Task: inverse folding
């Protein structure tokens, strides 16, 4: 594990992240995951929106990075999406620390259109949750 990977993993030990060069590429999804848990649960509709974008991302970059697969993304994201465990206060705090790091260190270097796209995905995830809540 690289030094950055160890630091990032130390921000959220409850999730037992396995970071390597491939999984590191999925860290930009963390702010979306935090939005998904905003209401205290991770809903099926939110997961569908998330994986829609994950699948698009993988298809876009996989010709250049064949190790970057949808299955790999799903394995990496599973600890964050496990509704049976829920998001304890400790995990919520760890997720917040990880998000802070990603936004300040990883996304800050991204082009403005990439940051805007991430925001758009977060809004779409939030909207899908609202629909699910109002349907009940």
Result:
């Amino acid at each position: 594990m690289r030094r950055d990977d160890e630091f990032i993993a130390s921000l959220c030990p409850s999730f037992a992240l396995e970071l390597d060069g491939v999984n590191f590429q999925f860290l930009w999804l963390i702010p979306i995951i935090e939005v998904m848990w905003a209401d205290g649960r991770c809903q099926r509709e939110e997961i569908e929106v998330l994986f829609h974008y994950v699948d698009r991302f993988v298809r876009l970059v996989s010709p250049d990075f064949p190790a970057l697969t949808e299955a790999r993304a799903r394995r990496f994201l599973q600890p964050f999406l496990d509704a049976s465990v829920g998001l304890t206060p400790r995990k919520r705090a760890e997720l917040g620390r990880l998000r802070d790091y990603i936004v300040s260190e990883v996304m800050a270097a991204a082009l403005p259109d990439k940051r805007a796209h991430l925001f758009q995905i977060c809004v779409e995830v939030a909207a899908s949750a609202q629909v699910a809540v109002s349907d009940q």
